[in-house]
Design goal:
By secondary structure, the chain is α+β, with helices and mostly antiparallel strands. It has 23 helices and 15 strands.
Length: 551
């Protein structure tokens, strides 16, 4: 009955907004390169959409949160309304917070903390955040997960997965964009976000990876009071980027800070393979001493070594505005049928997209949006690009926003070029670590051990005329037919020669029946041999394909 209720509310939502200009505008916005001012045409109010998402369930609230960081999809009114989903969620009572904390950690709240603020700093769709002070005087925040939130998420995600499978079965567009894979990836991301032990690990790993960036702050977690549903970490006092006053923006040079932020993300993406995947303005805080804090590490992306190398090629191509380099990188990280797609047309469209993206300043340039458009172009050509490109697009889109707010004249592509040499050197050093070298030496050890045996085997086969050479590049049927033709010619030649020799030998034997003074039998052998010989010569001169071509 509960699942039936999920279906009902899902279809009710779709029916309500299917013909709405909200969805139509979002679709048109992606296809077109410019966001048009169409909010006056909407038949659904922004706040109505927000309330509907809240009623749909926590998974849909999370989807709304993701949409609030996508200015390429929706106008400002809707972005502002959806951003309320990040801060304006019904709070959990203090008694419930106390109960969850004590059940999870096994410690009494009053003993664990010198003080604990009952009023939350923030209340989000997954958890609630409170400020507290440890007995040592250390300022911390405690993030506590909502009760039964995991089950609610799973129910909503199951509904979305089933609806996506239905859409793929009956919709060409859903199939083209592989909607089931998208929903499955969303499921993995959200379920990981529900496990605070993973966020704890993310905090520690990122703190270590970014230790050489003094202007960047990653909160340090507190292990004693952290579980799968409770996360305690340093309290970072600062302002969201969106809360910085225009006067502060004018008087402060944020370029060094943005330089460090950009380089750190290049390192995360290309070297570390562990990336803070949700750097929207609400998760980036500027502190009073001019540093930048990366908050909310529940959502991270992991890039394999292979993907890192392909992304590196892609970003270098984008920094150079080289459409061919970009196309090659995209094709390398894609799955497609070379016989069914038009690579030339795809290359042409990517080059056109690059040529139209001539802006260099952050206020005009949208690197993340360009990546999203590239993915769409690929989908239209039935080229399935790796999921990591979508994640990269979202990361770069959020970085575009941050940079445009703090340093509107910042040249991101020039910065990527500047940092790329250093990043590439780090990548090479990483690949040349002791583990990789040891693996290389082991592989070569095996080669050295097996090489004498293999050489001896080859020599033995050559000596015994047992050596076989198989070349897949040749047309096997053509080669076989050629050998058969040669064998037939040799056999025919041997038969003709045998008949001539036989005729010569028979001529020495006296016979009472003769033709032109020769015995009948040798004469017949000799004439047959001549006939076969002439026929063989005719085939060689006029029937063989190669000789005809030479003429």
């Amino acid at each position: 009955m509960s699942q039936l209720g999920n279906y009902v509310k899902f279809f009710s939502f779709i029916l309500k907004y299917y013909n709405s200009s909200v969805l139509k505008s979002a679709s048109d916005t992606i296809v077109n390169d410019a966001v048009t001012d169409v909010q006056d045409n909407y038949d659904r109010k922004p706040q109505e959409l927000v309330e509907d998402l809240k009623q749909m369930g926590p998974a849909y609230v999370k989807l709304g949160q993701l949409l609030s960081t996508r200015p390429d999809l929706l106008p400002d009114d809707y972005l502002l309304a959806l951003s309320e989903l990040q801060d304006d969620v019904e709070t959990i009572s203090f008694e419930e917070i106390r109960k969850i904390f004590e059940e999870e950690t096994g410690a009494r709240l009053s003993k664990a903390f010198q003080s604990f603020d009952p009023e939350p700093l923030a209340s989000a769709s997954i958890g609630q955040v409170h400020r507290a002070v440890l007995p040592s005087g250390r300022l911390v925040v405690v993030k506590i997960q909502r009760p039964d939130i995991r089950k609610k998420f799973i129910d909503d995600l199951d509904t979305l997965r089933e609806m996506a499978a239905l859409a793929v079965k009956h919709s060409k567009e859903a199939k083209k964009y592989d909607l089931t894979t998208i929903i499955e990836e969303l499921r993995i991301i959200l379920l990981n976000e529900l496990d605070y032990t993973k966020e704890f690990q993310n905090l520690e790993h990122l703190r270590y990876n970014l230790k050489n960036f003094p202007r960047l702050i990653i909160p340090e977690p507190v292990q004693d009071y952290s579980t799968s549903r409770v996360l305690t970490m340093d309290y970072i006092q600062g302002k969201k980027i969106t809360e910085i006053s225009p006067l502060t923006k004018t008087e402060t040079d944020f370029t060094p800070l943005i330089d460090e932020l950009t380089e750190s993300y290049m390192q995360q993406i290309i070297v570390d393979g562990l990336v803070h995947a949700d750097p929207h303005p609400g998760n980036i805080h500027v502190t009073g001493d001019g540093k930048m804090a990366l908050m909310d590490l529940g959502m991270v992306a992991r890039f394999s070594t292979t993907i890192q190398e392909k992304i590196m090629k892609l970003l270098i191509g984008m920094s150079r505005k080289n459409g061919d380099e970009i196309t090659d990188a995209l094709l390398e990280m894609s799955e497609y049928d070379s016989h069914e797609i038009d690579v030339k047309s795809f290359r042409k469209e990517i080059n056109r997209l690059v040529m139209n993206s001539t802006a260099s300043h952050a206020e005009d340039m949208q690197t993340g949006r360009a990546l999203i458009h590239m993915n769409r172009v690929a989908a239209n050509h039935f080229i399935h690009i790796a999921t990591e490109l979508n994640i990269l697009g979202k990361i770069m889109l959020n970085l575009d926003q941050i940079i445009a707010v703090l340093t509107p004249k910042y040249d991101l592509q020039k910065a990527i070029q500047k940092f790329m040499d250093n990043i590439v050197n780090q990548k090479i050093k990483q690949d040349l670590n002791s583990g990789n070298i040891y693996s290389f030496l082991l592989d070569n050890k095996k080669l050295a051990e097996n090489l004498p045996y293999r050489l001896n085997k080859i020599s033995e086969n050559l000596a015994n005329n047992e050596f076989e050479l198989r070349i897949n590049a040749l047309d096997e049927k053509r080669v076989t037919d050629g050998f058969q033709k040669v064998a037939n010619r040799i056999t025919s030649g041997l038969i003709i020669a045998a008949m001539i020799i036989g005729a010569a030998l028979l001529m020495r034997i006296p016979s009472s029946y003769t033709i032109m003074g020769y015995g009948i039998l040798p004469f017949l052998f000799f004439m047959i041999a001549i006939g076969l010989g002439l026929y063989l010569i005719y085939n060689i001169l006029f029937k063989d394909e190669d000789l005809k071509k030479r003429k």
